Amino acid sequence: MATPSKANILIIEGKRSDRPSFMGGLMKKGFQVQSVASGNAALAQVLQFSPHLVILDAASLRTSGKRICRSLRQHAPGVPIVVIQDAQADPLDPAEADVSLMLPFTLQKLLNRIKPFLPVVQKNVMQVGPFQLDPEQRWVRCNDKQALLTPRLVTLLRVLMEHCGEVIERETLFCQVWDTEYTGDTRTLDVHISWLRQALEEDPRHPHYIKTVRGLGYRLDVDDHKSEQNGQGA
Question: What's the CATH number for 122-229?
Fold first, then answer.
């Protein structure tokens, strides 16, 4: 069962006398909220505050929000962006914002739209270092990156997490993930490792976590090698 976890939300908004800010309502719901008045201030705050979500109130800034969204995507690519726009504005491209909301709308609608992007506490979530994996829902988070994985990639990451810090030989890893005794061609394992790096590593060509041990296999390296379940010291 999933329950909401405390989340950090960064709001970029200007001051308008014709309508209230959503900041107060979000704080009453238990979120940790920081507010800034410009895109430049948001970039600086993203590094300090580490938000799980950015809400850009483009309507209050009397801007389309495109430039700010593009800048945020460049400097914080893993942070979801929700944009609030006036009714006459054109919705942003999905590459620029995860959600576009047209005024007017209620706080409850805002909560409903941001919920899928916020962290949750679930008993079946595996955690190793910065990795959080839900095998049933097939999502994974690592630092500021999050992704939905295929069932095969979930199994691959789960095995690596269960043996964190250990070198797993290619043939052994292949047998466990593909549930087979045949190891004549394990090139598909290399392809899946590449996909996993693309989903989770900041620089897939120079992976920090999913390491290749030449001549042997693969190893998951994190600062903390202890696997634990959320809710049990996570």
Answer: 1.10.10.10
Is the distance from CB of 226 to CB of 171 less than 8 angstroms? no
| Backbone phi and psi for residue 42, each to the nearest 5 degrees, phi listed first | -65, -40
User: Is the preceding omega at residue 104 within 30 degrees of 0, hence cis?
Assistant: yes
Q: Are 35 and 13 in contact (CB under 8 A)?
A: yes
Domains 3-120 and 122-229 share a fold: no
Domain 3-120, CATH class in plain words: alpha beta
* Domain limits, the chain: 3-120, 122-229
Nearest residue to 49 (alpha-carbon basis) of 87, 80, 9: 9
Which of the residues in the chain have pLDDT under 70?
A: 1-6, 16-18, 120-123, 223-234
Determine the Cα angle at 230 with ends 229 and 234, to 5°. 100
3-class SS of residue 99: strand
Which tokens hold the place of 166?
């250990």
**pLDDT tens-digit readout, 30-67:** 888 999 998 889 988 887 777 889 999 998 888 888 89
Cβ-Cβ contacts under 8 Å for 136 (sequence gap 6 or more): 124
Q: What is the value of pTM for the model shown?
A: 0.52
